């Protein structure tokens, strides 16, 4: 009983501090009265918690200013705000050919970004780690941030990752990403590193700042070169036993699909096939460099018959894919994401037209506005979630 009575004030203070920080993250400058109204704390407790958080560097007090244009009697109210530069998080997109790292402040604002290629896909683990580490240092240097100011890192990889951050290695391609990144960056930089599947992070990112904002039942499909999906059900990201929830290898067995090639890859391939024949098409002007999806969609918009045929094939194929996903998962919304999403809006109408043939529970379909940043946006969100959950256990390198 005595232990409970000793611990209770500490627990209450921790809960109070957490409530104040949550309010600060959702607000700009606030007064003590604002804090009291939002959290239910007494004035004395609210002031005490704010001063403690300020001392630890998580929030800062603003210079007092009287109301503009008039005289206010008495002492002006104290105002506080989140110190969004108290530390930083890194969001990583680790693909087959390159690594991209984004530096974000504690409000989720991207401050710097760097990308570096891998020499080849199947390089040794230590070389892959060296490129990722170098890319991280370049991103941090671009915003004048030091490595010891990084509070958390999340890396998205093109392989299934379970709830504990372990990579599912049941095929060679997935094994390329099982390089011991968490331990390596902890040893090199002292960082806490979270691993997650890239499509899962795309789902988190789009639900945070994309087409799926506010939607609790959504599937986000990365659809550029290869297809992969992240599933959010009832507001919760699904992993499955080994991290395989959302994997789309079953498409090999779906009639009219047969593989997991994405929109960009197939648009390129089908355009090349058309150009190998004698069909008259405006796409021939791009033949030397290779036709990309954006050029196919633009030509289709201008009425090019070959491009329109490719567009219809892609729409029907995506409708079959979305129909299969909708039949199994029944989401409210399916979002097409990845770099191809920048131009894939022209697919929405024909997809909707075909979709009712393949499922009796058709979802809404949208394209993500996040483009090729969708994975790093999700990685930043994942890292921020970790920081926000563990703020009171983290020590800032140099409190401001």
Automatic annotation (TrEMBL):
Record-annotated HTH iclR-type domain positions: 20-61
GO biological process: regulation of DNA-templated transcription
Pfam families the record matches: HTH_IclR (PF09339), ROK (PF00480)
Recorded superkingdom: Bacteria
Gene3D superfamilies registered for this protein in UniProt: 3.30.420.40, Winged helix-like DNA-binding domain superfamily/Winged helix DNA-binding domain
GO molecular function, one term: DNA binding
UniProt xrefs under SUPFAM superfamilies: Actin-like ATPase domain, Winged helix' DNA-binding domain
Family recorded in the similarity comment: Belongs to the ROK (NagC/XylR) family.
UniProt-listed PANTHER family: BIFUNCTIONAL UDP-N-ACETYLGLUCOSAMINE 2-EPIMERASE_N-ACETYLMANNOSAMINE KINASE (PTHR18964:SF149), ROK (REPRESSOR, ORF, KINASE) FAMILY (PTHR18964)
Identification of the protein by name: ROK family transcriptional regulator
Organism: Pseudarthrobacter sulfonivorans
């Amino acid at each position: 009983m005595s232990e409970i009575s000793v611990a209770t004030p500490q627990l209450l203070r921790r809960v109070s501090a957490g409530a104040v920080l949550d309010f600060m993250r959702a607000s700009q400058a606030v007064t003590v009265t604002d804090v009291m109204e939002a959290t239910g704390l007494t004035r004395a407790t609210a002031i005490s918690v704010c001063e403690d958080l300020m001392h630890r560097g998580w929030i800062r007090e603003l210079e007092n200013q009287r109301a503009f244009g008039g005289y206010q009697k008495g002492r002006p109210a104290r105002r506080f705000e989140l110190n969004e530069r108290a530390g930083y998080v890194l969001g990583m997109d680790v693909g087959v050919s390159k690594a991209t790292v984004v530096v974000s402040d504690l409000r989720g604002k991207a401050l710097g970004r760097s990308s570096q290629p891998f020499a080849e896909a199947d390089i040794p683990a230590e070389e892959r780690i060296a490129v990722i580490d170098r890319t991280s240092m370049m991103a941090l240097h671009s915003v004048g941030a030091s490595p010891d100011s990084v509070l958390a890192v999340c890396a998205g990889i093109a392989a299934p990752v379970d709830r504990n951050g372990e990579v599912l290695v049941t095929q060679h391609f997935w094994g390329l990403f099982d390089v011991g990144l968490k331990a390596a960056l902890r040893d090199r930089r002292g960082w806490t590193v979270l691993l997650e599947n890239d499509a899962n992070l795309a789902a988190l990112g789009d639900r945070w700042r994309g087409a799926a904002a506010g939607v609790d039942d959504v599937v986000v499909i990365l659809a550029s070169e290869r297809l992969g999906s992240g599933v959010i059900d009832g507001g919760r990201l699904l992993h499955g036993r080994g991290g395989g929830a959302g994997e789309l290898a079953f498409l090999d067995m779906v009639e009219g699909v047969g593989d997991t090639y994405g929109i960009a890859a197939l648009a390129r391939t089908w355009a090349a096939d058309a150009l190998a024949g004698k069909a008259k098409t405006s796409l021939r002007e791009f033949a030397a460099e290779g036709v990309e999806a954006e050029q196919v969609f633009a030509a289709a918009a201008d009425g090019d018959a070959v491009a329109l045929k490719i567009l219809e094939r892609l729409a029907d194929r995506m409708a079959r894919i979305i129909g299969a996903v909708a039949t199994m998962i029944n989401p409210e919304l399916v979002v097409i994401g990845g770099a191809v999403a920048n131009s894939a809006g022209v697919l929405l109408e024909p997809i909707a037209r075909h979709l009712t043939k393949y499922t009796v529970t058709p979802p809404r379909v949208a394209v993500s506005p996040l483009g090729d940043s969708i994975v790093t946006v999700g990685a930043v969100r994942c890292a921020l979630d970790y920081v926000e959950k563990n703020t009171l256990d983290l020590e800032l390198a140099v409190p401001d």
